[in-house]
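Write out the 3D structure for:
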Amino acid sequence: MPTPLPLINGALSQNQIQNYWDDGYLFPIQIMSHDEAAAARRELEQLEHDWLDAGLPKPINAYKRVNSNAVMPLSYRLASDPRILDVVEGILGPDILIYGAEYFIKEPRTKHMVSMHQDLTYWGLGATSRMVTVWLALSPATPASGCMDFVKGSHKNPIMPHKDTFDDLNLLSRGQEIQVDVAPQDKTAIEIHPGQISLHHGLTIHGSGPNTTDDRRIAFVVRYVAPDVRQEVGEKDYAMLVRGADRNGNFVNYAPPRDTFSADGLAMWEEIRKAQSAVMMRGSEGKGVLYS
């Protein structure tokens, strides 16, 4: 098990920040205790149970997989946790917005995987370095359970050609896969345990294999952006301010949800989904709609 990186009063050291920019990722960082992460997992799984057949407009998995911070107070609470923001500030600076928060869950003994890809390929945000993804483990993420594999230094490439597979076993929206061969020896297994996070750059090539264990592999994933990032393809885009100020106005800022799956939260979620789907599914020739 990798030893967690020591923080300085909750913040990254200059060496750790430099390692992030050199490698395109940083891990593991202990943000909360195992018990606190276990409590968050129980809250999520209770929510899954309570809302599975509660008459939501879309299946609950759709809301977990995109912009869950718009409809789930649990997601907003985790994504706005000051301990995480203190770390993110070392990468983005004092002004931070949530671009989206989601749950990546691999059920036990299933073949679902994530193909090797770069996050920024279809988001319409360009090849920005002003976005960072935080991956919080709510259950063990190990090679056996399908933890992420990163390619060191790959974020120094531009956005590279990808192909769409629309594979039913691929957890990505388009089953997108980068069109370069990644040798096994070039992959670093990002093993993290409950309460720990990893960070990665939006251009870092990464993917993950199936979960071969008897436990669910539950990850809470947050994309943070600085206010100077902008949508380059769509007419508008959305984000939620969680620290500092937004002096650029490049995003429609929206408020945290007041209650789980409230009517106004569901309406905002659908508004965001439609706008982002138009960007993320652009060029897919009608083969996919983002969590329709």
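The chain has six helices and 13 strands.
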